[in-house]
Amino acid sequence: MMIMLMMIIFVLILANVIMFISSLLAKKTITDREKNSPFECGFDPKGSARLPFSLRFFLIAIIFLIFDVEVTLLLPLVGVMNLTFVNTWVFTSTFFFLILLLGLYYEWHQGALEWSL
Length: 117
Known about the structure:
Shape: flat
Catalytic activity: a ubiquinone + NADH + 5 H(+)(in) = a ubiquinol + NAD(+) + 4 H(+)(out)
Function: Core subunit of the mitochondrial membrane respiratory chain NADH dehydrogenase (Complex I) which catalyzes electron transfer from NADH through the respiratory chain, using ubiquinone as an electron acceptor. Essential for the catalytic activity of complex I.
GO molecular function: NADH dehydrogenase (ubiquinone) activity
Transmembrane segments: 57-78, 85-106
Radius of gyration: 28 Å
Structural class: mainly alpha
Largest sheet: none
Pfam family, one: Oxidored_q4
Oligomer: single chain
Helix content: 55-70%
Number of domains: 1
């Protein structure tokens, strides 16, 4: 028990010494605002959090996520093809593709895929 306590104390002291030496050797200055601030997708983290955000970009991102999830649902169909009858696989994949294409047509018809204003 005493050895474990001594090892924990040694590790804590070593970690603090390494952090102290690192902070002494670092070449950060207070005037380097860009280097000291985290990169937040191009937004200034010290500014207002209520900046206008493009709803078109948000809509395209949501559509991408929906179709990305549907593609991940399509991948297991290849493995299912060997385990089930061919008619079941063909019906399931055709029905799934039909739903996917109808959703794509609906989004296209509503104008959600057009980037221009």
